[in-house]
Amino acid sequence: MISELKPGQGKVNIEAEIVSIEPVREYEKFGRKFKVAGAIVKDDSGEIKMSFWNDEIGKVAKGKKIKIINGYVSEFKGEKQLSAGKFGQLEVLD
């Protein structure tokens, strides 16, 4: 459940619905280009910010249901954020 997630928590398996997605931002780091889109996802217990990276962005849209397998919760500017991370997986359920 989203309401129970804590910063630094790994091995997160959760289903959620995408409430909103921000426009894609591009940046370069270590000589590589990255794309990221911030979003808000929710379940029955609450909502959390989430980041979709690179290839994930084309799979998601507002209103879609997703499943995160082995995700990770970080903290940025005092807010919890969910991500599939390096070792996790994003599935679109629709």
In short:
By secondary structure, the chain is mainly β.
Q: Topology as H/E string?
A: EEEEEEE
The largest sheet is: 5 strands, mixed, barrel
Q: How many β-strand stretches?
A: 7
Overall spatial form: globular
Strand order of the largest sheet: 1-3-4-6-5
Q: What is the architecture at the second tier of CATH?
A: Beta Barrel
Total tally of structural domains: 1
Question: Percent of residues in helical segments?
Answer: under 10%
Going by CATH, the homologous superfamily would be Nucleic acid-binding proteins
Low-confidence stretches: none
Average pLDDT, rounded to a whole number, is 95
User: How many DSSP helices?
Assistant: 0
Our Rg estimate from Cα atoms comes to: 13 Å
**CATH first level: which class?**
Mainly Beta
CATH third-level topology? OB fold (Dihydrolipoamide Acetyltransferase, E2P)
Task: Supply the helix-strand structural class.
Answer: mainly beta
Terminal residue distance: 20 Å
Strand content: over 45%
